[in-house]
Write a structure and sequence with these properties.
Elements (H helix, E strand, L loop, with lengths): L8 E3 L4 E3 L14 H11 L5 H8 L1 H7 L1 H13 L6 H4 L5 H6 L5 H20 L23 E5 L4 E5 L3 H7 L15 E6 L6 E4 L4 H9 L4 H11 L5 H10 L3 E6 L2
Antiparallel strand pairs: 1-2, 3-7, 4-5, 5-6
Helix pairs in contact: 2-4, 3-4, 3-7, 7-8, 9-10
Length: about 260
């Protein structure tokens, strides 16, 4: 399945073209993400800007196809001065540039996948922080939640989309298979690298609002209230257990 960004619009559920389809070349295959990150680091000085972007966004490259990717990548590169985002941060602004191409669903979908890949890359390069041996945040007493803040690992990023971006990323991590999506549902995820590898965890209902509030320094009780307002069925214990299992809590602070 290909989602062209340079002509025509595709409906993700049926993959039927509307209007004028762009030419399609064989899609680039995405390798394992750790291998991709290693290739970017090892060959950065020898790759051109377009090749750097392709290595930085392998799933987007595969989704849109070779021709569409190269056209959009070239436009992105030309819109930035020499030594700008492409070469220094390897295209952190690329998701926003894709989003600026229009408001069609297919563009929003590809831009959301690109944002996911950008955050994965940031997590890979985040600084390491020594984590205390045991922080049982899921066992915190309810009457203490209003006086405590949870400090998250600096590699933590959060992403949410009305599309199944995590499933898309997972389905495009190997060369076999066609990357097809069976259920088109909204997904949110926590992306972090507390140890040697980047971990990705789908967030349960209300999880994005809860963790976003925690990352902004809100107390646990305030974060619970924000998440419950968004999702009445929010389960605070399940969400605290998720971040505990993900090993992304590096501290618990009391507030006056």
């Amino acid at each position: 399945m290909s989602y062209s960004l340079i002509g025509g619009e595709v409906e993700p559920r049926t993959s039927r073209w509307r209007e004028r389809p762009s030419p399609r070349l064989p899609s680039a295959r995405a390798g394992l993400s750790e291998s991709t990150a290693g290739r970017v680091s090892a060959h950065r000085d020898r790759l051109g800007p377009i090749e750097l972007l392709a290595a930085r966004y392998p799933v987007v490259h595969r989704l849109v196809g070779e021709l569409s990717f190269r056209v959009v990548a070239r436009r992105f590169i030309l819109s930035h001065p020499p030594g700008g985002a492409v070469l220094n941060a390897i295209g952190d602004g690329f998701p926003g540039f894709i989003r600026s191409l229009g408001n069609a669903a297919c563009i929003e979908y590809v831009a959301d996948v690109a944002e996911f890949e950008m955050l994965w890359h940031k997590a890979w390069h985040a600084r390491h922080v020594r984590r205390p041996a045991a922080l049982a945040v899921s066992s915190l007493q309810a009457d203490r939640l209003g006086r405590l803040r949870v400090v998250l690992h600096p590699s933590v990023s959060l992403v949410q989309s009305r599309f199944p971006i995590v499933t898309t990323w997972e389905n495009n991590q190997a060369n076999d298979g066609d990357g097809m999506i069976e259920r088109w549902v909204a997904e949110a995820a926590l992306v972090a690298r507390p140890f040697l590898e980047v971990g990705v965890r789908r967030l349960p209902p209300g999880g994005y609002a809860f963790l976003r509030a925690l990352s902004e320094g809100k107390t646990v009780a305030t974060a619970v209230a924000i998440a419950t307002e968004v999702t009445p069925e929010f389960d605070v214990v399940a969400n605290l257990r998720l971040i505990e299992d993900a090993k992304v809590v590096v501290g618990i602070q009391g507030v006056q």
